[in-house]
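Example 3.2
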Amino acid sequence: MGERRGPRDRGHRLGRTARAARTTAGQIIAAAESRRPQRLVERLWGELSEAIGEARQLVGGHSWRMSEEELERRYTHLVGNKNLGEAGVDPFGFSPHYVRKVIPVLEFMHRVWFRVETHDIENVPEQGRCLIIGNHSGQLPFDGAMVGASLLLERDPPRMIRSMVEKFAIRTPWFGTFCMRCGQVTGLPDNCRRLLEREEAVMVFPEGARGISKPFRDRYKLAAFGHGFMRLALETGSPIIPVGVVGAEEQIINVGDFTALARLLNTPSIPLPPLALVLGPLAMVPAPVKYRIYFGEPLHFTGDPNDDDAVIAKKVAVVTAAIEALVSRGLAERKGIFI
């Protein structure tokens, strides 16, 4: 038979149960009344308000606008370094005159909307072939546009980069022509090889569509890099400039993918922003996040471009690690998403 417990023992047990119940209830109430979500919203609203104030000052004072003299100087430099035909267009469809007309829009996006902050841009050589390799994100390719804008607007002398883009972008009516006139080229190895042989700076996002369309939960996690860029670097003797872009991941939040619609339109993906059902296409307008772009030191590789994938993969891993380090630096240095 079990030992009988007296009133004092029963009272002690009841007291402990009551105290445990009060503790649990307090924890539940504290969790229910937690201000963490509220503090996050307040912080983001504060950052956004600060960013809007900064943008207003820039617009009001016209301090973001490049003078006509400076624009002409940069345009003349670009034209002087391009092999253009009689119509002012190169064999790939690039037109410096067309770029000059869109520079005001590019400048507004660069200086006012995204308020781009560049670091170590002098690591991009003034001339000669090179491959600019970066992380890709943001659902829409504003990251590539801002890297290109940085080299046009911030570097002195300026440098025009030629971006490798998905085939479907070039095939899209009107937009495809816009891409070509602005210097972008279908991402085929032969096109990249020809540009490098012409001593161009070529930008490649080895993550491709996997990088730009990643869901928000995978932000700043690099997708697997393709090996093609490394084989071309070895074949053409081109240095690689790693680039880390911080900020683009938050410009358009992606929580899913319209897979069926993407297949119907023959596009790699169509993101699903949280407010897509309410705002429709307006949900794809990028938020005025602050961009930080870090240019790493040139990387030089030697070897046989036809080596086995295992050998090439080790070289690609060096580039991936360099970009991850630049992204980590940017995340550590930024004060917030909008500032």
